[in-house]
Specification:
Layout lengths: L1 E5 L4 H14 L3 E3 L10 H13 L5 E6 L3 H7 L7 E3 L3 H9 L5 E5 L5 H13 L6 H16 L2
Parallel strand pairs: 1-2, 1-3, 3-5, 4-5
Helix pairs in contact: 1-5, 2-3, 4-5
Length: 148
């Protein structure tokens, strides 16, 4: 299950990604926003990150104008590793090397086609483990020490 959310700046791109999910019969939960009316992006990030953190969703996608604010918010939740990605290669390595579980997209910097390709790559790439596992475990230790 994938959970998706966007603020007003990412609303149109979110709707295009949902069309792609519908075409490919990919199950998702939409946490809003549901229009281009201004909203506070931390509320959307919280809703998506909570679903992933509490394991009600396997992965998440967050969209705002840059992807940065959403990523900062999402990474405040235990177990969340949110990566802002602007190309397929960064999406691939965020999964392979960092086991990212939320993708953040910047709607002002990518086209719909690029976004679909990035999402497809993110969802299709598995965590490589191996030498990267110990690094992700170190991230988890940092989380335990600093997120009490």
């Amino acid at each position: 299950m994938i959970v998706i959310g966007a603020d007003h700046g990412g609303f149109k791109l979110k709707e295009e990604i949902k069309k792609y999910f519908d075409e490919k019969e990919i199950k998702y939960i939409d946490q809003g926003t549901f229009s281009e009316e201004s909203v506070d992006y931390p509320e959307i990030a919280k809703a998506v990150a909570r679903e992933v953190s509490e394991k009600r969703a396997d992965m998440g996608i967050l969209i705002c104008r840059s992807g940065i604010g959403m990523a900062i918010c999402a990474n405040k939740f235990k177990g969340v590793r949110c990566a802002p990605c602007y190309q397929e290669q960064t999406a691939k390595f965020s999964r392979m090397h960092n086991n990212a579980n939320i993708l953040a997209l910047g709607a002002d910097y990518i086209t719909t086609n690029e976004a679909i390709c990035i999402v497809r790559q993110f969802l299709a790439t598995e965590f490589e483990g191996g030498r990267h596992l110990s690094r992700v475990e170190l991230i988890n230790e940092l989380e335990k020490e600093n997120m009490k």
